[in-house]
Amino acid sequence: MKHLFVINPAAGKGKTLEYVDIIEKYFAGKNDLYFLEITKYPGHGTELVKQYVSKDTFRVYAIGGDGTVNEVLNGITGSDSSLAVIPSGCGNDYFKSIAKYSPGKNILEKQVSKDKLLEMLVCGSELTIDMGKINDRFFINIASLGFDADVAHNCQKIKNLPFVSGLFAYTLSVFGTLLRYKHHPVKITMDGVNMEKDILLVAVANGKYYGGGMQPAPSAEIDDGFLDVCLIEYVGRMRIMRFLPKFIKGNHAEAEEVSFHRCSSLSIFSEDKITMNVDGETSIIEGKVDFEIIPGGIKVVLPT
After folding, report:
1. Distance of alpha carbon 164 from alpha carbon 158, whole angstroms
2. Has 256 been annotated as catalytic?
3. Given 18, 37, 281, 292, the catalytic residue
4. pLDDT surpassing 90 at residue 101
């Protein structure tokens, strides 16, 4: 088997680079071929992976956060190579979704060392799962539009300030976003059914977790052939403040503004600019966004 390691040096406050020595020591004296690549700019991971998998089949390891996983995914698609995730970012939400399928199901509860996790993945088995597609790009976990995406987008800016990080940055972002937030009237087509809504947010889920462990669509599964959609209609600022703690804890199902849907395809049209968060990376979009599920679209590695 050939192994390709893609390391994002910006993830994990630089600690991802510790894997260079760990990988080299692990493969010393072994016959397996392995390659190490360190990304230099956003999107570089996708470019690197495409170059490798166009020539041969690899087990490709994404070493970084969910954004790194997304870049590696978009490099692998269309090939016979498989995706292994070495969680080294802030949220590592997608790893939570695949861990329960692993023969070592309690891996999340254990303090597994870096070298042990590497061994568990190199020796791991493979599982074919679904992935999502947004226009011409693929995603593996969750995409969302609206308030939560704005919070994530603003949080990244706040984290760049001196002495501000973690939960404090998230809290500041929530209040800052709340002060400026407005409703988003959108047109939604879900498996051919049309609706118009003023939304607070829409989360389109393949995986179960995002935002450091929140579950916007608790019933989402990565191998059921469907997208799970959490649609939350717009409410006033005071109502958002009361609602938000329930959403963070995953207790939002009973709120009257919340509805859950399951579909194979989804289109959202907005005349206004709106923030979208895809696998932890945010951008500003406008116009129409098309989502679809690709059943069995990717092979992932389960740690043994």
Report:
1. 7
2. no
3. 281
4. no
Q: How confident is the model at residue 89 (pLDDT cuts 50, 70, 90)?
A: low
Which pLDDT value is given to residue 106? 59
Alpha-carbon span 69 to 66, nearest angstrom: 5
Distance of CA 93 to the CA centre of its chain: 6
Report d(CA 23, CA 154) in Å as an integer: 35
Cβ pair 201, 177 in contact under 8 A: no
d(CA 40, CA 45): 8
Q: Which of 82-96, 188-202, 276-290 has the lowest mean pLDDT?
A: 82-96
259 Rama class: left (phi>0) / alpha (psi -120 to 50) / beta: beta
Q: Which CATH class is domain 2-123?
A: alpha beta
Q: Where in the chain is the domain with CATH 2.60.200.40?
A: 142-295
Beta-strand (E) ranges in 155-226? Answer: 184-190, 193-205
Residue with tokens 């020796």: 123
Please provide the average confidence, as pLDDT, over all residues in the chain: 88
**CATH classification code of 142-295:** 2.60.200.40
Bridge partners (DSSP) listed for residue 265: 292
CA–CA distance, 231 with 214 (Å, rounded to integer): 15
- Report the distance separating Cα 51 and Cα 76, nearest Å: 10
Query: What are the angstrom distances between the C-alpha of 71 and each of 23, 138, 176, 291?
Result: 21, 9, 29, 18
Report H helices in the chain.
Answer: 18-27, 44-53, 66-76, 93-99, 114-122, 147-159, 166-180, 237-249
